[in-house]
Amino acid sequence: MENWIDIGSADELSATPLKRVTAMNREFAVSYKDTKFGVLSNTCNHVGGPLGKGKLDGEYIVCPWHNWKFHRCNGKGEPGFEDDCVPAYQVKVENGRVLIDLNSATKRHKKSHARDFDAIRDMLADEVRLDLVAKLQKKGRTEVVPYFDNYARLEDWNFVPGLVDGIPAALVRNPSDPTGKLAYFILLQWEGDRVANIRDFRFARYANEGAELLVF
Ligand code: FES
Fold first, then answer.
1. Binning pLDDT at 50, 70 and 90, where does residue 16 land?
2. Which atom of ligand 1 is nearest to the CA of 161?
3. With a 6 A CB cut-off, is 68 part of the ligand 1 pocket?
4. Which CATH superfamily, name and number, covers 4-104?
5. Whole-number pLDDT of residue 110
C-alpha cells in the first residue's frame, strides 16, 4: 500500500540542487537536477553523514564527511560500489507540492568497500601520522603512502566500516576465515575531509579485547 507524504513546495525545493528536508520526523536528502527530483534517506551508509548537506557530482550525491557517493535517484553507491545503497523513494509533484511514497523506500544495504584504502590514500593530509602499533610510526604523506602499497599486496584483509569505542574505524576480517570473526581494527581520525591520523592494530590484536566494536 502506498503512503504518500508532502515534503515541501516544488518551487522551494527546486531552487537548490541539494537540501536536507525533515518530514514526519525523518530526514531526507532532496536533490533537483534536469527538472527531476530525487529523494534519499539523509543518512550515509558509512558513519551516518548528512547526505543532504553534501553536494552533487553529476547524478551522485557526495557525502560531506568522507566523500562516498550515492546516486541521487536510486540510492546506489558510485560505480564499483553499487551494492552499497541507501534508501531511495518514489517522488511525484502534484499541485506544486513534492510528494514521496514512504512505503516505496528501497532497502538500505551496506557492503564493505573492500578496497577503501585506495580512496583513503587519496584523502591523506600532508602531515598525516601513521602508528602501526607495536611495529613502526611514520609521519607525512610521502612516508605513509608505502604502507598503503603494502596493504594492496596482502590478501588477508577485508574492511567493514564501524566504530571502536565510539571512534570511526575500519574493522578488519580475514576473508578466508570461515568464522567471519573480526581480526583487528584500524582507527581513522579525520580533519575535515582529510585523514590526519591512522592507528593500525594489525600487530597488536590484543586491543580487540575489551574494545566495544560496532559494525555498520
Ligand atoms: S559518513 Fe558519509 S562518507 Fe563517511
1. very high
2. 4
3. yes
4. Rieske [2Fe-2S] iron-sulphur domain (2.102.10.10)
5. 84
Domain ranges, ordered by start, for the chain: 4-104, 116-215
**Ligand 1, closest atom to CA 49?**
1
Query: In the CATH scheme, what architecture does the domain 116-215 have?
Result: Roll (3.10)
- Cα–Cα distances (Å) from 135 to 151, 167, 201, 211, in that order, read 15, 22, 9, 20
Number of other residues whose CB lies within 10 A of the CB of residue 200: 22
Ligand 1 site, residue 29, Cβ cutoff 6 A: no
| Nine-digit cell string for 23 | 518530514
Please give the distance, rounded to the nearest whole angstrom, from the Cα atom of residue 50 to the centre of ligand 1.
8
How many whole angstroms from 49 Cα to the centroid of ligand 1? 5
pLDDT tens for 58-78 read: 999 999 877 789 999 999 998
User: What's the pTM?
Assistant: 0.61
pLDDT (average), residues 101-127: 81
Q: Can you tell me whether residue 94 is helix, strand or coil?
A: strand
